[in-house]
Amino acid sequence: MDGKGPQTLCDLCLAQELADQLLQKMVTKGMLNDTTVGIFRNSEKLRLRSASIRYCKVSAMAFRLALCPHRLLELDASWVPGGLTGADVISGLASNPDCRASLQMLALNGLSLNLESPEEDSGVFIGFSSLQGLKTIHLVNTDLTDDVLEDICTLPRLETLDISCSSVTELNALLKCKNTLRSLIAHRLYRLDTTPVRLLFIFTQLHALRHLDISYNHFANDDSERRTNGDETVRQLLEAGPQILPSLVSLDISGRKTIDDSALRGFVESRSGLVFLGLLATGLSSSPVLSSHENLKVTGEANEKQLWEALRRYRERECFVKEALIHLYHLTTDTDKPQPDMLKLVVEDMRSHPESPHVHLLATACVFNLTTRDLAEVMPVRLMSATVTQLLHAMETFPNIQQVQSNCLMALCNDYLLQNVPFDRYSAAMLVIKWLSNHEEPTLQRIAVAIISILVAKISVEETALLSNDISFMKQLLTVVQHKAMLGLVDPTLKFALSALWNLTDETPTAARNFIECQGLELYMEVLESYYSETAIQQKVLGLLNNIAEVEELQPDLMDEDLLEHILSLLQDSQMLVEVRYFAGGILAQLASREEAWTLDQELRSTILEQLHKSIMTWPHLEQEMVSYRSFRPFCSLLQTYQPSGVQLWAVWAIHLVCRQNASYYIHMLTKEGLMELLKALDTHPDTHSDVKRVSQSILRMVQEQQSPCEVTNSQTEPGKS
Asked: Pfam families, alphabetically (predicted)?
């Protein structure tokens, strides 16, 4: 053998696996449509075996051309919008002789079958029985008729059949596959018109049956007689003894509320091989007989284990998802136990019902319970990322359902989550500000503004610029500040709004310009005066004015004598905390550094420069973090050798402060942005003031003391203003 044969076979297997993965990825990303599915037309280069086009808009023609040439083992075409019918799928598959023999699983949930009865199409028999290899068929929520069911049950290898929520009226056809059918799922057959005696007879003939699901939607307003007949069938089955369905190991009767405990007890005790019981919404999940069967899996509401099983098994059934979530919410209120597996199921159930307000109302409340306080910190980061994405989807999808919005905001207002979990923070900020513009409820307003203040601090400069392009974002935050200031309030909402505005204008000239255009400067001048004794408020206001002062084209807007004299008084006030005096000094340093742009009295500039130097020399070393910088670019002009000593001293003091508190991050920034050369120039220039030299030299020593090259990947990132 020359060795080419095995290599070719290996390549073929790899191509099949990659083709299946590629298709699945396209479906997951929402990229599959009539155009993109065309890449699978060449069935020699991309050979599909397991294909899912679930929820993807693919036409009958595109389906036939792209997928039907493949020798498929499995196909899931459930919930495909746009007109694809079961008849289209079956005729397309049947046109390929290989598929007629190879296909083992077919799911057409949610489609119109458009098969009144099996028929001929261009000489080819069109019906499920034309696909002789089928073992598993899923036809949930379809217009399945009795005639089509007859055709299905002639399949020689049929083992699993799901006809839940279909329109069949009788089940006599099941007798045709009584020796092969191992799993029958018949949840909520709302048109079934068969007596309990006849149903029980049919079930007794299914000799190979191991799993039977005859659960019911307890929320549905279906015909009471049909519901009663179903309940009576279940009761008779439970009381019939193990000679009926002797192979049965799994039974689901969830939603059947009229069954009594004695019938259940007799059934469980007579079947030692039982592995699963579906008892959600029956009132039976706390039955004592279950406690003696530890290995028996149960869906119910008696405990979290039963609810976990319910959320896992019933993902596609909205009625049971809602029931399980109701009980989960009550069980997890005030919980302090991390439950990542439960949270994962809640998120997956939200995905499975993207348009259901009821599911999202309950699920978002459960998410809050499962992630509140410190619980989020011990969850897998990827799970938390998916959780946030679903919360944002819920906010976007149900903007008018107040409780959903409230649940999402409360769940999102988690410091760890907002700071450390990866998700689309830009879109989140836009969603929350949109909510804020339409609501004024005080508690939720505080939460929304808190979320925004953190998000704005964490997004990139580019994303901040995008946010600033939407002037409504700025207006909404200023409206919050104005409302609080008018009432003279000092509360968390005001502080969060000020922090958000501070971060929004950080190195973002467009945002700074919008701030001025929205009369923010006038508002902040009022806040500075009216909140003179509130250090935290003063710091945030002055921080934003620093950002404006860093933009040369906006400096003329700050050339107001009353404003600068007020800021100068804050700088000079020895009773004022350094946190306030520092930012006052930054504004004055930026404005006084450009003599050619100074439009006020020169004596005021001279006083500012003198007081800058004098004040800074009295500032103590700070241990706590006070400020952070995205870059040192605004400092470059202040570090020039021709600048006045007061300007230079403020800049080096600021750099020294942050480098001492977060050396690895900021020393790397110094080197990367070329400030080392400026500091060295200051140190060696003969006219540099000794105070400036001393601080510059201290910074240079810190750089030298770094034992290894600074690596940004191992350093902290700046937290943003708070």
From this structure: LRR_Zer-1, ZER1-like_2nd
For residue 125, give the 3-state DSSP assignment.
strand
Residues 379 and 342 sit within 8 Å (Cβ to Cβ): no
Kindly list the domain boundaries of the chain, sorted by start residue.
13-115+127-134, 175-302, 315-423
Contact by Cβ (8 Å): 349, 387: no
Q: Distance between CA atoms of 664 and 716, rounded to whole angstroms?
A: 8
**Alpha-carbon gap, residue 191 to 172, rounded angstroms:** 14
Task: Confirm if 256 and 229 have CB atoms less than 8 A apart.
Answer: no
CA distance 37 to 440: 47
CA-closest candidate to residue 250, choices 297, 288, 300: 297
* Residue type at 386 in one-letter notation: A
Q: Is 100 exposed, middle or buried (0-12, 13-18, 19+ CB in 10 A)?
A: middle
CB under 8 Å to 291, separation ≥6 — which residues?
A: none
Confidence at residue 15, expressed as pLDDT on a 0 to 100 scale: 65
Regarding pTM above 0.85, the answer is: yes
CB count within 10 Å of CB 270 equals 14
Exposed e or buried b per residue across 385-409, where buried means at least 16 C-beta atoms within 10 angstroms of its C-beta? ebbbbbbbbbbeebeebeebbbbbb
What are the angstrom distances between the C-alpha of 487 and each of 119, 403, 503, 527?
77, 28, 24, 12
Closest CA to 98 of 127, 69, 121: 69
Distance, in Å, from the CA atom of 614 to the CA atom of 646, rounded to the nearest integer, reads 8
The CA distance from 683 to 693, in Å, is 5
Q: Are 359 and 349 in contact (CB under 8 A)?
A: yes
Contact between 647 and 592 under an 8 Å Cβ cutoff? The reply is yes
Question: Cα(45)–Cα(39) distance, rounded to whole angstroms?
Answer: 10
Summarize pLDDT for 504-558 with one digit per residue, the tens. Answer: 999 999 999 999 999 999 999 999 999 999 999 999 999 999 999 999 999 999 9
Interatomic CA distance for residues 650 and 648, integer angstroms: 6
Residue range 420-446: mean pLDDT, rounded: 92
Measured CA angle at 325 (ends 320, 331), to 5 deg:
130
Beta strand 160-162 pairing with 136-138 = parallel
Nearest 10 degrees: CA dihedral of 552, 558, 560, 566?
Answer: -130
pLDDT band at 152, cuts 50/70/90?
very high
Ranges of beta strands (E only) in 87-146 are 105-107, 119-121, 124-126, 136-138
d(CA 481, CA 587): 21
The owner of tokens 């028999």 is 125
What's the CATH class of domain 175-302?
A: alpha beta
- Determine the longest span between alpha carbons in the chain, in angstroms: 107
* Two structure tokens written together for 255: 């939603």
> Torsions phi, psi of 55, nearest 5?
65, 5
Stretch (H or E) spanning 308: helix 304-313
List phi, psi (to 5°) of 650.
-60, -40
Per-residue burial over 432-442, b if 16 or more Cβ lie within 10 Å, else e, is bbbbbeeeeee
**How would you label 248-267 residue by residue, b for 16+ Cβ within 10 Å and e otherwise?**
bebbbbbbbeebeeebbbeb
| Nearest-angstrom CA–CA distance, 302 and 605 | 75
Q: How many angstroms separate the CA atoms of 88 and 70, rounded? A: 16
Residues 290, 12: Cα–Cα separation, whole Å:
50
Tell me the C-alpha distance between 663 and 650, whole Å: 19
